[in-house]
Design a protein that fits this description.
The chain is mostly helical and 269 residues long. It has a two-stranded parallel sheet with strand order 1-2. The protein is globular and about 50 Å long.
């Protein structure tokens, strides 16, 4: 099922297949028929549509909320992030089956993939209402880099993707919601509020399974997190941080402040 999603190029088809497989998984969990986890060979990079054109991050135009075209560009970037997240969550399911994990690990990432698929579709509907669609603008080419760098390291994947990249979404989404609220775009505000609430759980799943593996291997979670992020993540974490939502997701300040570009974190004062 995971590889089926990963090898589907069309974005709308990818999310439709993702949601269908998620429904099948949870139906099997509910009625006691329990699908086997099995093994598969995921592609190193997921199949993607011809558009959007992928650019080096330095070449992606800056996005501003003061105009309709600026808000379209922001939503296009969000859609790109959400589509990558669909693949990321199915990839973690397929790629690390050599590591024995409780069934709840699969429950969490199938649920996350299903929610990311719905998020992508909601943002596409908002784009459509504005006369655009996913693929109409260029997008960030570096989105899969963290997945590729951690393809042989489950702890590294958990540290960098949900606990760093998705946690960043908790920091920036409130301002995004306010910008669309100021533009009286209630459709987008409603979609972003759903995404914001559900992303807390995705970060929490990363934190939960990272701590689980550290406990099983006798590792100090904070020290291991710092080591992995410094190894795999390119650059510093950037404040301001949404400390309330990060804490709700199981990320205490002493995990991320020491990795920031601000040398004197507030919690240490």
């Amino acid at each position: 099922m995971a590889v089926d999603v990963l090898t589907t190029a069309n974005a709308r088809a990818k999310t439709e297949i993702s949601r269908r497989h998620a429904a099948t998984w949870f139906s099997s969990r509910k009625d006691g028929t329990q699908l086997e986890i099995g093994k598969a060979s995921p592609p190193r990079r997921p199949a993607r549509p011809i558009n959007p054109k992928l650019l080096d991050p330095r070449d992606v135009p800056r996005r501003r909320t003061g105009s309709l075209q600026g808000r379209i560009a922001i939503l296009h970037a969000v859609a790109h992030i959400e589509l990558n997240a669909v693949d990321l969550h199915w990839d973690i399911i397929a790629r690390f089956t050599d590591t024995s994990m409780p069934i709840g690990f699969y429950d969490d990432w199938v649920k996350s993939a299903d929610e990311e698929s719905r998020h992508f579709n909601m943002i596409c509907e908002s784009l459509k209402e504005k006369g655009s669609d996913y693929g109409a603008l260029p997008a960030h080419a570096g989105m899969w880099r963290a997945a590729d760098d951690t393809r042989d390291d489950l702890l590294g994947r958990l540290a960098v993707v949900p606990m760093v990249l998705e946690a960043r979404g908790l920091d920036v989404t409130p301002n995004m919601i306010q910008a669309f609220r100021s533009a009286k775009d209630t459709q987008t505000v409603d979609a972003l509020k759903i995404i914001y609430a559900e992303e807390v759980s995705h970060v929490a799943y990363g934190s939960k399974w990272f701590n689980f593996l550290c406990g099983r291997e006798g590792l100090d979670p904070k020290d291991k997190f710092h080591s992995l992020v410094r190894h795999y993540f390119h650059g510093h974490l950037k404040p301001p941080f949404n400390e309330e939502k990060r804490a709700e997701a199981g990320l205490p300040p002493d995990f991320y402040w020491p990795l920031s570009d601000q040398l004197s974190p507030p919690y240490a004062r």
